Amino acid sequence: MTKMTDWLVLIPTEFERRYLTLFSELESTTVKVCGFGPIVSAAKTAEFIGVYQPKRVMLLGIAGSYRAESVGGLHPGAAAIFSDVACFGVGVGAGENYETAGEMGWQQWGAADDDPIGDVIQLNDRLGFLKRFQERQLLTVCAASGNKEDVSKRLRKFPNAAAEDMEGFAVATACQFFRKPLVIIRGISNLAGDREKSNWKIEEALASAQSLAVEIIRNVGN
């Protein structure tokens, strides 16, 4: 039996969901764990859209910042909405020899009767509110940056990326196939490449992300 909801809020892990507790207070909002990484999150997003038929989708969780010190940078503990999401890892080669699918001349999806999917997906702003926020690109990766060298390699391919996650591009792909508008909000837990957990601000990041998410859900009309 199909269940209808206004908002489908997707959270990658149970760990993150434990910190995100306010959504039970919101009407017609369904919260589901979509899984860790780009493969499971794409599959579960498609499943949940089919079951709940949401008017709109939100992806909520933590991310690592590439640009904490630059103008418009994201510091640990902050949260941001992203205007587009890119994919790092699909293509050919590795390290300095890596080429994205787009650099190879390939689309990830290119059916004649559908919108193509390349290395970057612009998030559908049918809701009309993203113009209030600074445009930022989120980069989806299969493995988080382990050091500054990893960050540098990724920024050479996607110099506009402000942060990295592991689910955004996958969820955006599923939403594009189903023609569902998507909002991605990420709390910045750490600087990408910094694996020293004592420097991370997970609780603050998720609190910031939750506050922004609840504001949007309460203020965007059904």
Question: Nutshell version of this structure?
Answer:
The chain is α/β, with parallel strands linked by helices and 222 residues long.
Q: What is the string of helix and strand elements?
A: EHEHEEEEEHEEHEHEH
Provide the helix percentage.
Answer: 25-40%
Chain-averaged pLDDT: 91
Major sheet summary line: 9 strands, mixed
Number of domains: 1
Distance between the termini: 22 Å
Global geometry: globular
CATH H-level superfamily: Nucleoside phosphorylase domain
Low-confidence stretches: none
CATH topology name: Rossmann fold
CATH class: Alpha Beta
Q: β content, as a range? A: 15-25%
Structural classification: alpha/beta
How many helices in DSSP terms?
6
Number of strands: 11
Give the secondary structure arrangement, pairings included:
Blueprint: E1 7-11, H1 14-17, E2 29-33, H2 38-52, E3 56-65, E4 79-81, E5 84-87, E6 91-92, E7 99-100, H3 101-104, E8 120-122, E9 137-140, H4 148-157, E10 161-165, H5 168-178, E11 182-191, H6 202-219
Parallel strand pairs: 1-2, 1-3, 3-11, 5-9, 9-10
Antiparallel strand pairs: 3-10, 4-11, 5-8, 6-7
Helix pairs in contact: 2-5
